[in-house]
UniProtKB/TrEMBL annotation:
Domain Cyanobacterial aminoacyl-tRNA synthetase CAAD as annotated: residue spans: 64-147
Domain of life, source organism: Eukaryota
InterPro entries, per the entry: CAAD_dom, CURT1
GO cellular component: chloroplast thylakoid membrane
Transmembrane parts of this sequence: 78-102, 108-126
Subcellular location: Membrane
Coiled coil region boundaries: none
Keywords assigned by UniProt, alphabetized: Membrane, Transmembrane, Transmembrane helix
Membrane topology recorded in Swiss-Prot or TrEMBL: Multi-pass membrane protein
This protein's name: Cyanobacterial aminoacyl-tRNA synthetase CAAD domain-containing protein
């Protein structure tokens, strides 16, 4: 009722001809979303799971975690590192929230991130030689982390 009065006021007293509601929307039968029967190629994309079960049950997972925890010699240090990681995560969240509340700073940091992304793509991903260099750098970093170097 209010919408009709508003439209009459907008049009300067002229009323639009009444159109039945059913005439505005197409019939459901004429609008046809993608049907499985209409797309026979979808049956070619089926993927079957492997026959062997690779997932571990919950009990096996708990037993494995208990065994790993019992194998740790310096448990207080592990707890201290875990607590420190949680505090660092919380502190990072607080700092990011504070930076986000400054009006112009998030947009500037977005531009810095975009610029760095562009530089990284140009430096490491654009040319074949630099991609090889990046791959060797990643492999050497993996070896340093795992201690196999």
């Amino acid at each position: 009722m209010a919408a009709t009065a508003y439209s009459v006021a907008l049009l300067g007293g002229a009323r639009l001809p009444a159109v039945p509601r059913s005439g505005l929307l197409p019939r459901r039968s004429s609008v046809c979303p993608l049907r499985v029967q209409a797309a026979p190629r979808l049956s070619l994309l089926r993927v079957k799971a492997a026959s062997e079960d690779t997932s571990a049950s919950g009990d096996e997972l708990i037993e494995e975690l208990k065994a790993k925890w019992d194998a740790i010699e310096d448990k207080p240090t592990v707890l201290l590192y875990g607590g420190g990681a949680i505090v660092a995560l919380w502190l990072t969240s607080v700092v990011v929230g504070a930076i986000n509340s400054v009006p112009l700073l998030p947009k500037i940091l977005e531009l810095v991130g975009l610029g760095y992304t562009g530089w990284f793509v140009y430096r490491y991903l654009l040319f074949k030689e630099s991609r090889k260099e990046l791959a060797t750098d990643i492999e050497s970093l993996k070896k340093k982390i795992t201690g196999t170097e």
